Amino acid sequence: xxxxxxxxxxxxxxxxxxxxxAALGMLLVKKAVHxxxxxxxxxxxxxxxxxxxxxxxxxIVQIVVYTGAVMMLFLFILMLVGVxxxxxxxxxxxxxxxxxxxxxxxxxxxxVSLIGRATLGHSAYGLTxxxxxxxxxxxxxxxxxxxxxxxxxxxxxxxxxxxxAMVLAHHQRTTERPTQREQAIARFRGASLGSAxxxxxxxxxxxxxxxxxxxxxxxxxxxxNSISATLKARGDMLDSAQFELGEVDxxxxxxx
Amino acid sequence: MNPYNYLxxxxxxxxxxxxxxxxxxxxxxxxxxxxxxxxxxxxxxxTFSRINGTLDGQVVAFFTMVVAACxxxxxxxxxxxxxxxxxxxxxxxxxxxxR
Amino acid sequence: MxxxxxxxxxxxxxxxxxxxxxxxxxxxxxxxHLLATALSASSFGVGLYQLSQxxxxxxxxxxxxxxxxxWINVGTFNVDAGLLLDQLSICFVLLITxxxxxxxxxxxxxxSHDENRRRFFAYLNLFIAAMLLLVLxxxxxxxxxxxxxxxxxxxxxxGFWNQKPAYATxxxxxxxxxxxxxxxxxxxxxxxxxxxxxxxxxxxxxxxHTASKAALTAIGIMLLVAxxxxxxxxPLQAWLGDAMAGPTPVSALIHAATMVTAxxxxxxxxxxxxxxxxxxQLLVVIVGAITLTFGALVGTAKDDIKxxxxxxxxxxxxxxxxxxxxxxxxxxxxxxxxxxxxxxKAGMFLGAGSVMxxxxxxxxxxxxxxxxxxxxxxxxxxxxxxxAIIGVPPFAGFYSKDAIIETAxxxxxxxxxxxxxxALLGAAITAFYMTRVMVLTFTSKQRWEDNQHPHExxxxxxxxxxxxxxxxxxxxxxxxxxxxxxHWLSPVVGEHAEGENLLLQPIVVSGLALLxxxxxxxxxxxxxxxxxxxxxxPHDVSVFTRIAxxxxxQDSFNExxxxxxxxxxxxxxxxxxxxxxDGAVRGIGRTALGAGSVLRKTQTGFARSYAALxxxxxIVLIAGIWVVTQ
Lengths: 256, 99, 630
Prior knowledge:
The complex is a heterotrimer.
Chain A: H1 6-28, H2 32-52, H3 56-81, H4 96-117, H5 135-144, H6 148-169, H7 180-188, E1 215-216, E2 222-223, H8 229-234
Antiparallel strand pairs in A: 1-2
Chain B: H1 4-23, H2 27-52, H3 56-86
Helix pairs in contact in B: 1-2, 2-3
Chain C: E1 2-3, H1 7-24, H2 32-56, E2 64-74, E3 77-85, H3 87-110, H4 117-136, H5 140-158, H6 165-196, H7 201-208, H8 213-230, H9 239-242, H10 248-257, H11 262-269, H12 271-276, H13 278-301, H14 305-325, H15 331-358, H16 376-390, H17 396-409, H18 413-443, H19 459-480, H20 484-493, H21 506-529, H22 543-549, H23 554-600, H24 607-628
Parallel strand pairs in C: 1-2
Antiparallel strand pairs in C: 2-3
Helix pairs in contact in C: 1-2, 1-4, 2-3, 2-4, 3-4, 3-10, 3-15, 3-19, 4-5, 5-6, 6-8, 8-11, 8-13, 10-15, 11-14, 13-14, 13-18, 13-22, 14-15, 14-17, 14-18, 15-16, 15-17, 15-19, 15-20, 16-17, 16-18, 16-19, 17-18, 17-19, 17-21, 18-21
């Protein structure tokens, strides 16, 4: 009979609720970045669980691969894609949310009750015996003997995936690259002459030059298209009115 | 404490991931929920490895991680490709097959 | 058994003609009819050669066989495509090729104005080949091939002028009614194979000594059905009258002399079956008796000269079937009547064709009259045939028909008296309607319009008629001299069995028959020669005449009993098909459509709703596990 030592129990009862709450939070928060961070936390928790269960190698790999590589990849893509309306939590397909919640409750309930009912016919053995030479060595033995064929196949899969990502990311130019001259012509013959000179830069001259402050138009109003659409959609836009000059002295003394 | 408790956590995480796939619209978040489900399955594998006293479960979990990494690479590439052509990361916008 | 390698030429020559003429098409228009006639004549020559060979051999070695190739070789079922020429077949071979050649010659002139004459000759040659295969086949299966072949040729020739819808319908009618008979033949072959294990004539004959009576009766009845179809016997007689739609030479060759007698051949050939199955034999007699009366009655009312002759043909074949049904006593007489009939009826049909030729294709006898003066040769040849058919001595019909009547009387008991009187009555009616044809056409007052210019037919037409007329005069005498034909055929059909105690002496029967004939002739002369005949058929006639004009309601009967219920059954089946079968199929389709339109709503195109469905599916699975592991 495998007895679980108190420190592990303490760790479990401390971390398990946290991980479930973090997972739930991942669903409920609006911003994808926050979801990603919460997921990273769940993964770290899981890594701790792995290590606690004598799966040292997997725990380290979990941290390195998931929280290190995969989550960084996610964050990177998030940065690339930016923020849009899909972040909104309002449901657009009618009736889907109640169905999803009912289904989740049923699914979870059934799963939990099944786990509660299931018996293995023996008690847990623990991995002390299997890990006598060390967890990594024992895993390596298995990987390079019994599982060597799946191992090779999986490595082929990994290479294929890398190739696939390259193919997908590759952008084949279908038209001639426009020359500067052509671009200039296109600007002036575009929808509006207003954009011919390019969009106004963000920032209020002499008062604030950050990217999240709209530029001021000559009449003193804010120019919304002077800042990135992503910032706008995210709501990370400062009110440029606060940087307005109070009272401008219009009186010009004529000098000779 | 009983190692079966890990299984409960795994089941809950899996359920949450499944619901996330259904309710979230941002393709990247949906993808993260899929990752959550995979991780929940991994936790089950590791737990059973411990219960059974053999390392095979861990080996399978290891393979799962590799496959998940592949999936992330390709999946994110697809998302980026779709975003590049449609300017949207909403999974609902990719419903062209219906028409 | 003697074997020969030259039998196949009998069939191959006319078949070659048909093939060449049909394949060469219009290119052979100029010489096609000559080739066909020459090939038919050479086939007749081969027949004569075979006869001379046969006569040179002793009686028991006269039959010759030729194996062409192994046709079917499946397990215990072996059929060779083989030919058999014996004393019975040679009669038919000579009749078919001889009369056939004469009719070929006649047709050269008769069809000279038809632009499709070459095709006509191709079909004629095809018919000769098929008919020869029919009589030469050494097994029922080989016979069946020829049987179907003549059916095809008959169909093609009846509908030769198929641009007229009525003629096309007539050929279809003949074909369909023949199919009914053909079913009988195929059933007979199947039963023979199933019960006797063989279908060759010799094999069946051998097996018939030990086979069960029930099986033989079944085969016999089925053969009778086949014979009624091909020979236009009751109850499958209705097609023959309409078959007169074909050109007259066709009526003479196929629907008088040869093809329609195939049923008689079949029954005589299968004598071993009928001898062993009295029930079937009795049915044969009944069919023969009914048909001979039926045909004779129809013949009295027909104004169309060809249809009157067709009715007469039906009636005369009734005599043959009657004779064939009387067993060993009658087989030879049936064949004798068949041969003499082949001569005089073919001659009369050719005479009718000659009359039509001179009368602008008019066929209504009420529009004829007094043609004796204009067509002396036709009158003479037709008259000789007429004397032969009514049975005036010493013409051919007298010998053959009297023999059958006499045999019928001597069949014994009530059956004999009934059959004999029927045959005698038939002879009287035959005399009546044939005299009517003769009088209306040749001797009564002129009833045709003045713009008609009756004229005698050319040499090519009257020469065959003359030859056939000679045949109708002499054949009866030749066949009966010293019982020549009876002895000739006895190796095939069994020894001729004369009744022990004769009910009536032959001389009495002959007297009675002549009396009956005299009565019939007298009534006809009184009615048609000595009184006025309307040029248009009167309508205020007795109900019997009306029924007889309508072929004794045969078509109405067929329509009421077979066609209407058939149509009703068909429309019922169509409805059943539409509602039940199609309904089921369409129902499946509609169900799929309905289910589709419902399920389509689940296909939103949104990946998330599909994910929800997957989730629900997973729930169902887990719920299943949950329930099972309860």
